[in-house]
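SAMPLE LOG
Freezer: B-3
Tube label: C17
Construct: single chain, 250 aa
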Amino acid sequence: MLGLLGKKLGQTSVYDANGILQPVTVVLAGPNRVIQTKTVESDGYNSVQLGFDDQKEHRLTKALLGHFKKHNATPTKRVGEFRDFPVAVKPGDVVTVNVFAQGDFVDAIGVTKGRGFEGVMKRHNFGGGDASHGAKGWRRRSGAIGQRLFPGTVMRGMRMPGHMGQVRRTAQNLQIIQVREADHLLLIKGAIPGANNDYVIIRESKKLPKGSDRAKRRLAVRTAVGAAPAAAAAKGKPAAAPAKADAKKK
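STRUCTURE (predicted):
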């Protein structure tokens, strides 16, 4: 599967080919260096191991530093592995953002922002208790969490206050609006899990893989929807002027 390691830089908005302003997340996705290539004969499966963001040797564990030296690779802060990588590469090669193209659909994997210990209203979107009619002290509480004699315990999976965020999440089927190879940037439509400067994984969409019929249909629909307002505006502008002139004459 095609993929890259990257860093989320922030959010902005850009105009697409149809002149529609699109909200995008800017991802620094390269350059990725090939550390190791695995094959069925040597490892039992095919994959490519990539490294991103150079790191000083004295900040690495001896095990990881030994792995880099074994493959004559530059030490990096992040190492990721992608199975069945469709691009033919060898150790030492550099993989850039040009493996993706404008209009491709990708999945973005990141770690969500940590929110600390949160109550049920923020963590689970509870409505809370009454603010009046004698219900004192129950404005932000969850209410009852169990029964009495039977079963006499709290049911497993009960939604309660606790730690929120700081979990791995995947945003699926995000569209690439722009690929800026000179700056190693991907401009991806929508939101990506994590805070700014967090490391992320950008991989080919599992549900809408590159070149599939589903991906082509989805792209055609989005292109048609985006082009419709521009086409309507272009057709309506010439016709609008005579109507105003006629109204003034009347």
